[in-house]
Amino acid sequence: MEFRQEEPEKQDKKRGDLLGRVLDLKDVVAYRDGTVASRMLVNTKAGSITVFSFDEDEGLSEHTAPYDAVVTILDGECEVWVAGQTFQMNAGQTIIFPANVPHALSAITRFKMTLTMIRE
Prior knowledge:
It is built from one helix and ten strands; from the N terminus they run E-H-E-E-E-E-E-E-E-E-E. It is mainly beta. It has a single domain (2-118), classed as Sandwich (Jelly Rolls). A hairpin with a 2-residue loop joins strand 6 and strand 7 (85-90). The longest helix has 8 residues, at 8-15. The radius of gyration is 14 Å and the shape is globular.
């Protein structure tokens, strides 16, 4: 899997065009063939909000995070694994990955999601 995320300075400049506007989050980042793409909307000491797009069969391998991670599916279908349990998710559904618990996800179809991390 190839994952493309722009450098923070470039993201900060581009984030300005999102401020004070009504957004349809599934339109914030485009699908890209054979890869995962992202666009960070908010990144502060308190937390971050990022929108991701995954091409079919792409995903994120099992990992942990030091904070709870809230994932909401915006478009398409994916499969997620949390602490050994498997869930199929569709647009409109949300799951919370608990801090320090192994989790992963994989695209069944192309899909988009938001990732919200709140730091302690």
